[in-house]
Amino acid sequence: MSTTATALGTFSVRPLDPIADAELLHRWVTDPKAAFWMMQDAKLEDVEREYMRIAAHEHHDAFIGLHDGEPAFLMERYDPRHVELVGLYEPEPGDVGMHFLVAPTDTPVHGFTRAVITAVMRELFADPATRRVVVEPDVGNKAVHALNEAVGFVPEREIQKPEKAALLSFCTREQFEAAVGDAEVPR
């Protein structure tokens, strides 16, 4: 996993442990600020079960994001040919799906969430096989649409998933480079 140093500190990711990280994740996904994560009523066991399912899945991975060595965000990477978007768009070689969630805090830091999504994108593009990142946030999540745009995502169209109406958006390596600066993107 790569490490990114920014003016806000150092960001890195580690594989998520579905059992050891379950309490932490439960606090994050049930917080009112995580409403779009759709786990508001989840019990600890539900969170364990969901992340055990992801850990066992061949085409879906979850990671704990660290800020200066402390857990600060959740990152999921998936293959849209097999997870989340099957039958909803025509995947291209090198497509990688992504979800991220910043841990709730009582003391927000200006620019932190943007630094997180930038670190997540750097992590995804650190794999030379990744050509394009695909996201499908809720159409009503205007805050994440703005963040996605800030790192180079371009919305394509609305799609209907079983659990939500989503805004299918894509970001190529080149779009990411143009949005955040060429020197900051792994080759």
Task: Produce the secondary structure layout.
Elements: E1 3-6, E2 9-15, H1 22-29, H2 44-56, E3 60-67, E4 70-78, E5 95-102, H3 112-125, E6 132-135, H4 142-150, E7 154-160, E8 165-172, H5 173-180
Parallel strand pairs: 5-6
Antiparallel strand pairs: 1-2, 2-3, 3-4, 4-5, 6-8, 7-8
How would you characterize the largest beta sheet? 8 strands, mixed
Instruction: List the strand order in the largest sheet.
Output: 1-2-3-4-5-6-8-7
Broad structural category = alpha+beta
Q: Write down the Rg.
A: 16 Å
Uncertain runs are none
Order of helices and strands: EEHHEEEHEHEEH
**What average pLDDT do the residues reach?**
91
Distance between the terminal alpha carbons, to the nearest Å?
14 Å
Outline: globular
Percent in strands? 25-35%
What does this structure look like?
There is one protein chain. The protein has 187 residues and is of the alpha+beta class. The chain contains five helices and eight strands; from the N terminus they run ββααβββαβαββα. The protein has an eight-stranded mixed sheet, sandwiched between helices. The longest helix has 14 residues, at 112-125. The chain starts with a strand and ends in a 7-residue tail after the last helix. The relative contact order is 0.14.
